[in-house]
Design goal:
By secondary structure, the chain is α+β, with helices and mostly antiparallel strands. Helix content is 27%, strand content 14%. The chain contains two helices and three strands, in the order ββαβα. Strands 1-2-3 form a three-stranded antiparallel β-sheet. The longest helix has 15 residues, at 44-58. The N and C termini lie far apart (29 Å).
């Protein structure tokens, strides 16, 4: 049988036609897959890179473009550094799905 909704398709019609990201459902991932590596206190860049690594590992398919050049970015697997080149809305939406896996 298995779990439902193993993948989530996040669509961004306000950004572009056929702009989407398909991610592994964070609610179904083991906890250690959603935790970022330790970073030195106050090192915002290291923390961002570590968080992007976690987000990137969830991406299985996407159609997005570089925010500066409008070039379509390569298909997954996605390196965390590529997330620095997509709109903030996309990164925040992925993070929101991760946050939903940890209800308060």
């Amino acid at each position: 049988m298995g779990y439902r909704d193993k993948l989530l398709r996040l669509e961004f019609p306000d950004l572009a036609d056929d702009c989407f990201v398909t991610i592994k459902n964070p609610k179904l991932r083991p906890l250690h897959h959603l935790l970022r590596d330790e970073t030195p206190d106050g090192d915002w860049d290291a923390a961002r890179q570590a968080s992007n690594k976690v987000r990137a590992a969830l991406i299985v398919e996407w159609r997005v473009w570089d925010v500066d050049t409008d070039e379509e970015l390569p298909p997954p697997p996605v390196d965390g550094t590529l997330l620095d080149r997509v709109p903030t809305l996309i990164v925040r939406t992925i993070q929101n799905e991760i946050d939903k896996a940890f209800p308060q």
